Task: structure prediction
Amino acid sequence: KSNDKLVSTSKFLSLVLRHRPEVIGSKLDPEGWLCIDELIAQANAHGKAITLELLHEVVATNDKRRFALSEDGLRIRASQGHSVSGVELNLEETTPPEVLYHGTVAAFLDSIRATGLRKRSRHHVHLSPDEETATKVGSRRGKPIILRVAAETMHRDGHQFCLSANGVWLVDAVPPTYLTFP
Ligand code: HQG
Result:
């Protein structure tokens, strides 16, 4: 498959499995899963040509491992990044490392200094395990700025951390006191 085809299919799956399953007339289950047979049938019925082979290739080769299959291989879900309502991934709470990172851009800094990191349209604030990953995340919006998050202290103070299946740390919010600005 051409890389373009894999990327466009990944974007389409992100749309359906994170944000708007209704574009193919589907609904995710409470933990975000969708039957693969239904997804393929509904996508094709709505003018998006997808085969089982293409879907499996996207899952296997995706740069950020954005999608996960259920153990029986019959269902698929996005591992993080949701904005759709009524979905809760039910990830286990996990102790974070001492420091995590968040990549953003200068335009947001005043607001972040005032209110801390907020989840905005998504279900969680997303944190990266290393500066390199955070740099990539920030670069989506312009010149990246990397914030350090005192994750271990935050966790000790009672904030819950979860680790998504593809290595993204998820929290409800990061109050300003746990942030270090460059
Ligand atoms: C910013 C991608 C003003 C925040 C990535 C970010 C990630 C604030 C933006 C995943 C703020 C939200 C998520 C505040 C946060 N005031 N701005 N108080 N608090 N922000 O896209 O972390 O390719 O929802 O800095 O790799 O950029 O989609 O979050 O810039 O894992 O798989 O508000 O998306 O993955 O933007 O990215 P997003 P994000 P995928």
About this structure: Residues 64, 66, 81, 104, 108, 111-112, 115, 117-118, 120, 122, 126, 137, 141, 168 surround HQG (CB under 6 Å).
